[in-house]
Amino acid sequence: TIPKTQKAIVFETSGGPLEYKDVPVPVPGDHQILVNVKYSGVCHSDLHAWMGDWPLPTKLPLIGGHEGAGVVVAKGKNVTTFEIGDYAGIKWINQACYTCEFCQEAYEPNCPKAQISGYTMDGTFQQYALADAVQAAHIPQGTDLSQVAPILCAGVTVYKAIKTSGRKAGEWLAVTGAGGGLGSLAVQYAKAMGFRVLAIDTTEEKEKMCLELGAEVFVDFAKTDNLVARVQEITGGGPHGVINVSVSEFAINQSLEYVRSVGTVVLVGLPAGAVCKSPIFSQVARAITIKGSPVGNRADTQEALSFFTRGLVHSPIHVVGLSELQKVFTLMEEGKIAGRYVVDTSK
Ligand code: 8ID
Ligand code: ZN
């Protein structure tokens, strides 16, 4: 039986108090499933949403979260692709229109009518959350729901970003922010896809983790005087591609300098108010490509999940109760998280 009320983390104003309290359990619309969220990853985008630091307003009051893994407990009358008891994943893109020019070409993250979990609608920092049945991810029975949660945003996003780079197996791929949530998965997807991975981040804990996850080299940005020269030296002229998942304008602009000629820089991390400033002479003469990459579509999601299900990537997670979300945001703000925090909604 589905309860009438449930626990959630709610904020009324941007950056305002995160209240752990009872809220009503939502009722699914005709096209929606109601998911009993067991675990939700905590993405740095949730911190941006709470702070309200992007030029896109959130719904207020808001229940954040967009890496939710759980069990379908109810569904609307038009839903034919999920049954009660199925495992489902709630992603950043909760719903799209499927008719605009972008949806027609499967660029659902660019749909102007897309609904975003934990941003334009309530997300997964609650025990029961809604998802559009077309957009919700199908997760195989028997999957560890705490482990799979980060794949639903971090995994999909970095897998898509690596594909977007258009780079080939055997080439060097640098990852800035390699020790964080997206980065720790980017290192593994890149390795599984045949790249030589150069991980950039700081602290010995993140260095150890990145090397264990398959990075060939780790460069500590806080301990390296001339990072551009060091990265070019290690890679014999610069990495062929860079996946920027750091929350640092400085790191992103630096990647334009050390990337190899004819290389590709992919922008994923979204530091507030940041500008990517590419010197035109250098970009033209060195034939550098710069691409932006927002999450992924349904096919990217199922592909990214398949890498996980086959054991090619795993999530380096720390599990805490949903009630401790504030603590997780504080650690994230301080750059102290190696891997990903996942909240257990039952605590
Ligand atoms: O669809 C998208 N484009 C998308 C999807 C999901 C997340 C974008 N994001 C964005 C988030 O909003 C956030 O801005 O990607 C960024 C990273 O998210 P995350 O991985 O969840 O954040 P994290 O776990 O805090 O990791 C960030 C890492 O960057 C490192 C930190 O040490 C941390 O490990 N870092 C920083 I800050 N400065 C650095 C620097 N100069 C750096 N690493 C290398 N060089
Ligand atoms: Zn995210």
UniProtKB/TrEMBL annotation:
CDD domains: CAD3
Cited SMART domains: PKS_ER (SM00829)
UniProt keyword annotations, A-Z: Metal-binding, NAD, Oxidoreductase, Zinc
Superkingdom of this protein's organism: Eukaryota
GO molecular function, a single term: zinc ion binding
A single Gene Ontology CC term: cytoplasm
Cofactor(s) recorded in Swiss-Prot or TrEMBL: Zn(2+)
Domain Enoyl reductase (ER): 15-343
Protein name as it appears in the record: alcohol dehydrogenase
Species the sequence originates in: Yarrowia lipolytica (strain CLIB 122 / E 150)
